[in-house]
Amino acid sequence: MIDVYLLSGFLGSGKTSLLVQLIDQVNKQGRQPAVLMNEFGELNIDSQIVEEKEEVPLKELLNGCICCTGAESTEAQLQSLLTDYPNVDVLFIETTGAAHPVESLDAVYSPLFADQLDVKGIITVVDAMRWLDRDKLSQRMLALFLEQVRHAHFMLLNKADLLTADQLASVTMQVTQFNSFAPLVQTTNAKIDFSYIEKMVDAASAPKHAISTGSGLPLASKVLSFEKPINQEHFEDWVRSLPDTVYRMKGYIQLEGSRYSHLFQYAYGMVNWIPEYMQIPSKLVLIGEQLSSIEYPPEK
Ligand SMILES: Nc1nc2c(ncn2[C@@H]2O[C@H](COP(=O)(O)OP(=O)(O)OP(=O)(O)O)[C@@H](O)[C@H]2O)c(=O)[nH]1
Q1: Are residues 53 and 101 in the same domain?
Q2: In this protein, which residues make up the domain named CobW C-terminal (predicted)?
Q3: What is the number of the ligand 1 atom nearest to the C-alpha of 187?
């Protein structure tokens, strides 16, 4: 299994600075790192920085962020990365500063990779200066900024050097009020020990089944596998009965009476079925909060 970490954080918060160091540290651990990167625009400056620094498998998603280019292109990128570099141990995905964490996770959780990727969590770089000035952000950007904090599994409060000790103490308190679950470390130039992040993220995870990323985490995932074809009506009844904290679902499902699998998608209360032209092992990925007790068929 490949350990996967999503790097989230606002534009300019220090994600690339963090990434360069993490790659270096994973290399020193004798493990093979890889990077999936995306950024708005044609030219990916960050990936040039990383490539100059390190020999590291790198795939870019240009022309849009991981959430808007859609899961399909991320799947294709991941597929080619896994094929081209079969020995990858740790994969970092740098999402654009404008990506919503749920959307980013959604793109990574493909039922196709459920057996290969162990999505460990979201590392959010919080720009401490930006936090102080957050009232200057537009409503939409402020909401995104806060969502990135809220859904983090580990937080770096970066640019600590630019704040006074009092400011830093007060920002730390405010940020941890927003997400009291994720450990927070104050950093300058995103300097941090990767093994510490690994330890903290692992410690926070609940016992795992299949590829679930810790059901106790604020934002988690869970994979359900189905041996037998599924009755569509019963399945949709079950979907409607799920709590609001299930944000997304997608999977390949073999329906009763169908020869081939269907691609099932769920978002914002809407379900969508698309017929495929082959049989794919039936697996459903859920993304949300408090997923541990969710099973199909539901327990009576
Ligand atoms: N003073 C100070 N500057 C920092 C710190 N961390 C990063 N920077 C600077 O902030 C700028 C942005 O850092 P990056 O690592 O490129 O941030 P990013 O989040 O990847 O930026 P985007 O790619 O725009 O999303 C660079 O000029 C860094 O040198 C810090 O802790 N203190």
Answers
A1: yes
A2: 219-295
A3: 31
Residue at 253: amino acid letter: I
In a domain, 95, yes or no: yes
- Structural domains counted in the chain: 2
Q: Which of 6, 8, 13 to mutate to test the pocket of ligand 1 (most atoms within 8 A of CB)?
A: 13
Which CATH number fits the domain that encloses residue 253? Answer: 3.30.1220.10
Report how far ligand 1's centroid is from the alpha carbon of 125 (Å). 10
Residue pLDDT, tens place only, 59-75: 554 444 444 445 556 67
The whole domain housing 258 covers 220-288
CATH (domain of 61): 3.40.50.300
**pLDDT tens digits, one per residue of 250-293:** 888 999 999 999 988 887 677 889 888 888 888 888 877 778 88
ipTM of the complex: 0.96
* Cβ partners under 8 Å of residue 227, min gap 6: 282
From the alpha carbon of 13, which atom of ligand 1 is closest?
19
In a domain, residue 209? The reply is no
pTM of the model: 0.74
- Which residue's alpha carbon is nearest to atom 14 within ligand 1? 14
User: How many whole angstroms from 188 Cα to the centroid of ligand 1?
Assistant: 10
Place of tokens 């708005």: 40
HSE toward the beta carbon, residue 245, CA cutoff 13 A:
15
